[in-house]
Structure formats: structure tokens, C-alpha cells
Write a structure and sequence with these properties.
There is one protein chain. The chain is built from eight helices and 15 strands. By secondary structure, the protein is of the alpha/beta class. The N and C termini lie far apart (about 40 Å).
Length: about 250
């Protein structure tokens, strides 16, 4: 029997995952704790010694990655939970660490449990180290413009702006913009979800280049180059959560 701890800042997600585990995996998994914060999760892991942890990636206080780096000793199997099929998923696919996309599909949940059970010799510490290496290696993206591809470091990109079915990439330092044949939706797929957020139908921003966030007048951002970008009303709650401002 696998003793599992569930860590997610969304109560509904915790309750649903627990219910699905009881419904579909009751003979294999027993939930011994549910935690709504990475801090509580670390305390529970140290106290209860689980052999399986379901861990949300994006949480306000710490990301799932940051929590595990603080924890250091990982002697349990990991299944990451993420709402975004973004760059991190590419890293999971070349690592032994499993992941589930929200909303969690019951068949994928059962398959993840079977994968954990089938491991003859688990080495979760090394699996996580490999995962981190793969995540950190994803630092550039290739963007198409007509018949050529240009490569950009993700930490160079301040924000992207829609241009009809195409888009502009605004870069730091030299203040230049690059045109791309990709739509803003395609750019959203390419850019890492931990750094970039689509605040509006016309904009994707890099959180490292936000200078000021004003919630009045519908909400807008001032970027470090002085550009003012709108935050759509329909995206505001999700954006606030992404930033960790759940009380705004």
C-alpha cells in the first residue's frame, strides 16, 4: 500500500484528487495527508514519511520545484500536477518523474499509480535531479519568421504583442522588437508558463520585467521599459493567483 500526501493550493483540486484515488486506486493508495501550501507539505513529508507525493507545480509561496530543492532529501516517489501543458512537461517527458495535467483524467491517474508500483528500484532523488537539469536546459525558443527560425533566450523577452495572426517579440536591453509568423496563441504554447502569462488577448508578459501592477481602471501593468499593458478583466483573478496575490 502506497502512503500518499497531496499538496496543492486549491482545495477543490485536493478534494477531487483524494476522491479519485479512493474511487479508482483504493487498493493501492492511502491518502495520509492533504496540504494547501508547500510549507505544510514539507512539514507533513518530514513527519509522516510518505512513499508517494502528488505535488502541484505552481503555488503562491513556492513552486513545487523550489519546495523540493529546500527539502533536499527526496526518498519518495513523485507525481507532479500541473494546469499548464508548458515547457516543464517537455522536461518530464525525458525524465523518469511522472506528471498529470489538470483536470486529472482517471485513466492517467491509474496509469501513474501503476508506473510507481512497477518500479523495481526507485531512485527518486536522482530522478528529480535529472528533471531539474532538463528544466534548466530549456532556456531558448526557436521562433519562425517567414522562411527562417530565430533563437531567443526566454530571459531576453519582456513581452509579446499580437499583430493580427502574427506577433511581435519585445526584447530587453536593446529595446528592439522582432516580428514572427507565429500567432500570440502559438507564442503562449512555446513560452514557459512559470515566467510568462497572457494577461490580455493582445499581450503575453514576462513576470521578471513587471515594474508596477495597478488594479484600478480595470487593471494594467507598467513594464520596466515604461510600456503600459492592460490586464483583461476575464484574466485578472487567474493572473492574481499566478502572481500569488490571492487577496487582491
Amino acid at each position: 500500500m502506497l502512503k500518499a500526501i497531496l499538496i496543492d493550493d486549491e482545495q477543490d483540486a485536493l478534494d477531487t484528487l483524494e476522491m479519485d484515488l479512493k474511487r479508482y486506486c483504493a487498493e493501492e493508495v492511502k491518502v495520509i495527508s492533504k496540504c494547501k501550501s508547500p510549507i505544510d507539505g514539507m512539514i507533513a513529508i518530514r513527519r509522516l514519511k510518505p512513499n508517494l507525493v502528488f505535488l502541484d507545480i505552481q503555488m503562491p509561496e513556492l513552486s513545487g520545484f523550489e519546495m523540493l530543492e529546500i527539502l533536499k532529501e527526496i526518498d519518495f516517489n513523485l507525481v507532479f500536477i500541473t494546469a499548464h501543458d508548458d515547457y516543464a512537461v517537455k522536461a518530464f517527458k525525458v525524465s523518469a518523474v511522472d506528471y498529470l495535467l489538470k483536470p486529472v483524467d482517471k485513466n492517467e491517474l491509474v496509469a501513474a499509480i501503476e508506473k510507481v508500483k512497477s518500479k523495481e528500484r526507485s531512485a527518486p532523488q536522482r530522478e528529480f535531479e535529472v528533471l531539474l537539469e532538463n528544466v534548466k536546459q530549456i532556456k531558448t525558443i526557436a521562433v519562425k519568421n517567414q522562411k527562417e527560425y530565430r533563437f531567443f533566450g526566454v530571459d531576453e523577452i519582456m513581452y509579446c504583442k499580437a499583430d493580427g495572426n502574427f506577433s511581435y517579440i519585445y526584447l530587453k536591453d536593446d529595446k528592439r522588437k522582432e516580428h514572427t509568423s507565429y500567432s500570440l496563441g502559438k507564442m503562449e504554447e512555446l513560452l514557459p508558463g512559470q515566467l510568462f502569462f497572457r494577461t490580455h488577448a493582445s499581450y503575453i508578459i514576462n513576470r521578471n520585467f513587471i515594474k508596477k501592477y495597478t488594479t484600478r481602471d480595470g487593471g494594467y501593468l507598467i513594464m520596466k521599459d515604461g510600456t503600459k499593458l492592460s490586464v483583461a478583466k476575464s484574466r485578472k483573478v487567474e493572473f492574481d493567483n499566478w502572481l500569488g496575490f490571492k487577496d487582491s
